Give the backbone structure.
Amino acid sequence: MTDAAELRRRTQELLAAHPPARTGRLDFLRARFDAGLAWVHFPEGLGGLGAPRTLQPAVDAELAAADAPDNDPRRIGIGLGMAAPTILKYGTEEQKRRFLRPLWTGEEVWCQLFSEPGAGSDLAALGTRAVRDGDAWVVNGQKVWTSSAHIARWAILIARTDPDLPKHRGITYFVCDMTDPGVEVRPLRQITGEAEFNEVFLTDVRIPDDRRLGEVGDGWRVAQTTLNNERVAIGGRRLPREGGMIGPVSRTWRERPELRTHDLHQRLLTLWVEAEVARLTGERLGQQLVAGHPGPEGAGMKLAFARLNQEISGLEVELRGAEGLLYDDWTMRRPELVDFTGRDAGYRYLRSKGNSIEGGTSEVLLNIVAERVLGLPAEPRTDKDVAWKDLAR
């Protein structure tokens, strides 16, 4: 399956059999998945046709022209961008068939239970424990900064299964049912006034062994697939020109000439060029991913994304003057997605502060770029071969 014309023909057959105007949204999405047109590069029977990833736009264009519904990718981004590729690589056939279809259609939302109060930047120091009990694992611990936990059915979870091994070993990767007894989700109110993130407390949560991804003790390697895809998902989104944060400030500049100054003009031009360079670099990274798997280059894209968002939003607030200090709504809400461009300048300024933390802090990503992209000597790590239980905490 390497021909765009054949994919367009299959898409037309899908549209003829399930006209979007007369087919329920969920029924159409299920039919699209079953036809192999969800993500064409996935294997047959799992939403794809084993086709090159480069052919997906041929399908998407046909569906967009027919006004077919999409699966609301922003709402289910963690499932699409992080859980799915990890399940595809490490999951059993039974796990793939159980989880991928409702994940893609949005019937089941996913979240990520990785970071902990004492293990954020140093994720491998995590202390959540999973103890084997027959054919299940009993999990106890706390996770933090968990997006979508309040609406999620499933979570990708890493927990320590052997404290006698060094911290990067003895970790195992699980799929956790967020509706199970012992899972408690508490909102974390942010600087924006909303509680987009959550704390998750796990108390004697039983996870069957058949919901383990990868081998026991191999969770860190499995997690690298998730983390690499997460960074690409955050920093490498494909955007049109003036897409993302640069769009609103550019429109304000054009529509409000009374706000302009020479200094702001020079800064805007610099950031516009940098945003365009980042966008084109993201396009190139996307093309490189077609032939393989996401690597540390995604860390560089995520770094640029965070820095640009913060600098652009700061410029926008300054451009608007006193008006930029206003904020639309401090109401405590638990949103289902982040909408940078649909809110006001104050929201963009405040929310962008989290961009240098989520998906790996900028400091950690700088190390990744230095060591894995540029090949510079690694930082000394004195705890690398020390058993986790003997580490100072």
User: Anything to note?
Assistant: The longest strand covers residues 197-208. The chain is about 40% helix and 15% strand. Strands lie at 110-113, 129-133, 136-143, 154-160, 171-177, 183-188, 197-208, 212-213.
